[in-house]
Amino acid sequence: MSGVFLTLNAGSSSIKFAVFASDGPTTEALLQGNVAGIGSAPAFSAKASSGGAVQNTPFPPLSKDTNHEAVIEMLLPWLETHLDGQPVVAVGHRVVHGGQYFTAPTLVADDVMERLEELAPLAPLHQPHNIAAIRAVAKWHPDTPQIACFDTSFHRSQSRLNEIFALPRELSDQGVIRYGFHGLSYDFIASSLPKHLGDKADGKVIVAHLGNGSSMCAMTDRKSRASTMGFTALDGLMMGQRCGDLDPGVLLYLMQSQGMTPDEIETLLYKKSGLLGVSGVTNDMQILETSDDPNAQEAVDLFCYRAATNLAALIPSIGGLDALVFTAGIGENSALIRAKICAHLTWLGVSLDPAANHEHATVISAADSAIPTLVIPTNEEAIVARACRAHLTNS
Ligand code: AMP
């Protein structure tokens, strides 16, 4: 049956949505938008495929007390009035953690929900919102198939050496391993590489997904071989509010000497660290870049330095580097951050063309750079829409 796919991406402080024609391209949404700033200053925005404003009913008023559940309860009926009477034939969700259970998009059923609940403590900022969105849709359209698309699935091609920690093996056996995240974004970039890199697409490529959450993925054959995020989405690069790599001894010190509770430590690591914690100003890179506060500058410099050291640490997993790709909010839009990261990588043969970088061209490396360096916009929604289509085709 033809109609529309709806994709939902419930993040820590936002809910993104997109509507696709079920028989149309999955790279172009008919309608898409988001409610950002949930918990602080929520704001709704949406645009139609024509690029024009979205007409019909206005979105209900939002206040700082409007939580994720309330936003989704407002969003679904609002969407209904913007579908021109077309049936919703499938709803796809970005779900952050699929653990060891889910290696591919999965039709949601009761046993799947139980697994998602079980994994919620591993992604406390995201998974509960993903689950709430699935439940809200089940209430809205009980008979519509819902497809869960996992950020962890893309990384299940990693070798055991990349997965296990140097901890007693009983813990690895219990699933305390490195999972990796941002898999929908990496999946999209992997599918775009042949267009941009030709023969090199299947070579040794590192993709830097730099946004409020940031990570990197090393690929060969367009499959994940290693990534900077681990058991949770706290590991690896410094992020907007998350700390990234941290000596675990710091946690012991905070508990034993500072008397911090697990909840306080969770808030510190997930919400008060990263660019926000180091700058003391904001987690917003665009603001930090133009700030003359020395703490803001130090936060920006640390972000770039840590990005370069994390990138270098990925290289042994793929035995070299043929191309580097930047994506996501910072990776796609910040010439300064790309330049600062690449300045730490000149020893590798990375050399940017400053004008191309400034213009956010697709290829930003200089003609004589040993490592082609690209900017490719990511599109997680397209991957979720493709999973909806695959489900309907195969069912
Ligand atoms: P994302 O999580 O992928 O939406 O990325 C959000 C991050 O991208 C925020 O830190 C923004 O400040 C940053 N960002 C977006 N546009 C720009 C820009 N033009 N320059 C610098 N940072 C940007």
UniProtKB/TrEMBL annotation:
Please report the name of this protein according to its UniProt entry. Answer: Acetate kinase
Subunit description: Homodimer.
Co-factor(s): Mg(2+); Mn(2+)
Keyword field? ATP-binding, Cytoplasm, Kinase, Magnesium, Metal-binding, Nucleotide-binding, Transferase
Any idea what job this protein has? Catalyzes the formation of acetyl phosphate from acetate and ATP. Can also catalyze the reverse reaction.
Q: What is its main location?
A: cytoplasm
Quote the gene name from the UniProt entry: ackA
Task: Give binding positions for substrate.
Answer: 94
Q: Where is this site: Transition state stabilizer?
A: 182, 242
Q: Which reaction does it catalyse?
A: acetate + ATP = acetyl phosphate + ADP
Q: Which PANTHER family match?
A: ACETATE KINASE
User: What PROSITE patterns does the database record attribute to this sequence?
Assistant: ACETATE_KINASE_1
Tell me the organism. Answer: Sulfitobacter donghicola DSW-25 = KCTC 12864 = JCM 14565
Which residues make up the binding site for Mg(2+)?
9, 380
